[in-house]
């Protein structure tokens, strides 16, 4: 690896490591709730129970990435703390993600750029987006998937079209699809790119390289797919069924998700970036750049069709964002070297001005404010315990994830391992309580996941949180039911409207059987903060 590339990677790694350290000096944790679903699966598998959510129940594919789960299984096998491992792993893979972005940009433009720094500046602009920093330490598969996607694309471009190299390319795409199921779309796009004849959209040519590419993919992904279909019993992961079925509202929600994600990536920071893109010219179009950009566009369309995601900052957009950004380096190069009236700055100063403006517009974003607060905590030698919700239950949440962890820890003290609780969300509460959990929105429950959504009751499209079945939950007779998904300053028996957005919660609250069979059972968890549970009366 050339010296300059080593320096680029080390700088990226240091940047993400420092930001993560500072954020963790302020927040209780940067890990998102769904990451604990992975952690629970990893623990159950390492302990010999199989791919199950609740010990003793049938297997269910309630996770979104087999390869990421496999990585956590290995970490757990060697007794690593999964929370710390996920943050370290996310930091490293995020650095590698942008390193491979640089390699792709360098491969495409190194011979055509006037300013050698344009590719590096483009990577820096990507790195400072709050989205990369946020998902870096979220504990999810996002940074791993982003890295592997860019790695796979880089070697697809870099390796020759020999039979052996095509086999390796197919294997890489097979592994990519084991990371995220929807990556099959990328495989199909690349296969079309390989077999189509030059300057024709419908004529194809099949040679030995294309055959070996398909063979490498089939051996890896085909073997995995046959195993998972026979083991779990469904063509798609359970999470897919739980998050789809909303018809036109699903598609509309997906479109709004894309718009919101792209907006949040930079906010007002898009203004200088769009200014740079105004320097783009038609002669900057190249076949390979258009090909990569089309992969990003198809990914956006796919995300729209499946309804997007409920997380902020574009988890489904981030992996392909560098491909959508593919025309930024040549446009930036043109901006840095063009003769601009009334702007006599040298290219270096132009780059500095661009960087300063983007940073100034991004520094107010929550991710960077958390890092600044963490730095202040380090200087003062303290770390505040953040409240998890305000007294009126109306203000913005400060550290909601801490509340879920406290809920799970409280359950561990009062419940037995064989007790059931019906909850939403399920991540940290299940991981820290270590009891059996019924998922009221169906992410790890195939019964709810495969139910049809009633369009008459679909008030708001929230992927993964729209389905529910109160009668089914009551039929399972859980010892505890959680209707309010946050801590309150005083005990709160009637669910807040935030909680009533979930179909299961709404149905349970309106069911006479629930009120006959369950009693309000609030628990004071810390300094007057209450966890509002309901307990089945037969367990008194």
What does this structure look like?
- With 540 residues, the chain is mostly helical.
- The protein has two domains: 3-362, no CATH class; 400-539, no CATH class.
- It has 24 helices and five strands.
- It has helices spanning 3-24, 35-46, 66-77, 82-109, 118-127, 130-136, 142-158, 163-179, 184-195, 208-232, 238-243, 247-266, 270-277, 287-305, 321-324, 328-337, 347-362, 366-380, 400-414, 427-433, 446-449, 470-475, 503-509, 512-517; strands at 420-423, 436-439, 480-482, 518-526, 529-536.
- A five-stranded mixed sheet has the order 2-1-3-5-4.
- Strand 4 (518-526) and strand 5 (529-536) form a beta hairpin.
- The radius of gyration is 25 Å and the shape is globular.
**Unreliable runs:** 394-398
SS content category: mainly alpha
Order of helices and strands: HHHHHHHHHHHHHHHHHHHEHEHHEHHEE
- Which strand order do you get reading across the main beta sheet? 2-1-3-5-4
Distance between the termini: 67 Å
Task: Describe the main β-sheet briefly.
Answer: 5 strands, mixed
The share of residues in helices is: 55-70%
- Helical stretch tally: 24
Mean pLDDT across all amino acids: 89
Using only C-alpha atoms, the radius of gyration works out to 25 Å
Beta-strand level of the residues, as a percent range?
5-15%
- Principal-axis shape equals globular
Number of domains: 2
| Strand segment count | 5
